[in-house]
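User: My collaborator sent over this chain with a note saying "see what the structure looks like." That's all I know about it. Can you take a look?
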Amino acid sequence: MGIEIERKFLVDDATALWLIGFSCKKEIIKQGYITDMLNETQVRVRTTVSYQPENQCLGFVTIKSGNCEMVRKEYEFDIPYNQANFMMQDLCSDRLIHKNRYHISKNEMLINLPFTLDVFKDRHEGLLMVEVEYDDILQSTNDKPSWVLKEVTNDLRYYNVNLARNSVPINVERSDE
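Assistant: Without extra context I'll predict from the sequence alone. Here is the result:
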């Protein structure tokens, strides 16, 4: 069984540009949801195109447990890129997300773990989110990095399944309360 332990944080434009400088890989991601109810099992189809270290076009189907919490069950399966594109077009064309994902290696100056920066596109333009995946629940209790604006791990508006149905959340506080 796959387990995902993840925290999500918003960052501002200047921080995003700074983080991209540490990036070791960029992916262009398109993903759609076949099932998109928050408290039920979610089925996602994703394509990724990356150019580092070599050109790769990949497709995936991911099944996630419906609970929207920091710890969730996750199963991911490789599928042909063209099949993933067809499934998105046929089954979830109205529930799509486009984003560029930057992979940042473990760096003690930033955070002592690898993480990703998602720069959302199209109707989600302007949304900049860092995702940190942890090996265990104890590790995930570390303080949030000093350079983030706000943690949104438990804010359902920032779950990709919700973003696929909606635009960027409105009236979002840009700092912790």
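A starting point for your reply to your collaborator: The radius of gyration is 16 Å.
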